[in-house]
Amino acid sequence: MIRGIAILVGLFFATMSLWAFGTGALTVMQQGYLVEPTAEIEFHKEPKHLALPSDGPFGKFDLQQVQRGYQVYKEVCSACHALKHVALRDLAKLGYSEAEVKGEAAKWVVPGVDPTTGEATTRPGTPTDYFPSPYVNDIAAASANGGKIPPDLSLITKARHHGPAYVYSLLTGYAEVPAKLKQEFPDFAVPQGGSYNPYFASLSIGMPAPLHTDGQVTYADGTQATVDQMAKDVSAFLVWAAEPTLQKRNQTGWPVLGFLLFATILAWFAKKQVWAAVKPKRAKS
Ligand code: HEC
Q1: What is each CA distance from 282 to 6, 55, 272, 279, 285, in whole angstroms?
Q2: Lowest-confidence range among 1-10, 25-34, 234-243?
Q3: CA–CA separation, 16 vs 24, rounded Å?
Q4: Dist. CA 253 → ligand 1 center (Å)
Q5: Is the torsion defined by CA of 160, 165, 168, 173 positive or negative?
Q6: Among 61, 76, 115, 169, which residue is least crowded by beta carbons within 10 Å?
């Protein structure tokens, strides 16, 4: 009886999957595709490959590179993007001395209160402040950027698939609309104020190419500031911003795993010892 029901249930599932497969196959045969192709499906690109020293379980930051990335963020990106989860004092972890951190913090303008009138004003940053937003609120941010709000970049490398590679690809991916796209999708148009970028899901991004000219920043360490280099460095900086303690985590993780392995072996021997006396004796044959 139960066996009969089991066979019926099995048959039901087998028929349903065959039926689903059959209708899918039929659709593909009739129209050549299952999901109607759109420009976004056909022309969206996966991020380019990017290797950073912080990758993998043994990853370490290249502090020189992260410092260069900080410079790019400071001189270019911070005009539109905030880093509200990163404190200015965290710059000490990039290898800056206490005095340098103070000097660096003072270059940022943060919201403050006038001590005599109590009115909202601005003041130079101190190490305890966080990286400020360039806009007073989202409405101001949107109105300055054609209706698109530049997102906070503190966690962007964690919030997107292939985080740093995505940011790097996005920054170096600006291009003309390919002729093939225009031919296949004549209705596709980049909206006013947008730019074509195949690494952005909708293919048109509301951020004008921020890194466009070699030498846009001048690196103190003499590294050539090509667009590619600046994009790599700022991506490395954003990995750091999202997790300044990454290196410590990697370094702590291995000894912890070693300790856990040791504790497991110890527990196993202890178990053998404790239960040795009460083990059932093998029956004599
Ligand atoms: C002129 C202002 C401006 C500057 C300068 C700028 N951005 Fe943007 N950025 C924007 C705007 C606006 C958006 C939102 C675009 C959209 O949603 O279409 C954006 C979006 C982004 C995104 C998010 C894409 C996503 O997946 O949502 C990243 C990453 C980014 N910017 C990185 C940078 C970096 C790195 C720099 C510096 C090299 C920079 N931006 C400089 C305005 C700017």
Answers
A1: 41, 54, 17, 9, 9
A2: 25-34
A3: 12
A4: 34
A5: negative
A6: 115
Residues in contact with ligand 1 (CB, 6 Å cut-off): 72, 76-77, 79-81, 145, 148, 150-151, 156, 160, 167, 170-171, 205-208, 210-211, 234
Average pLDDT over residues 170-196: 93
Residue with tokens 């700022």: 234
CA 138 – ligand 1 centroid, Å: 14
- Dihedral of CA atoms 193, 197, 200, 203 in degrees, nearest 10, equals 70
**Cα separation of 137 and 143, whole Å?**
10
Q: Which is the closest atom of ligand 1 to the Cα of 200?
A: 26
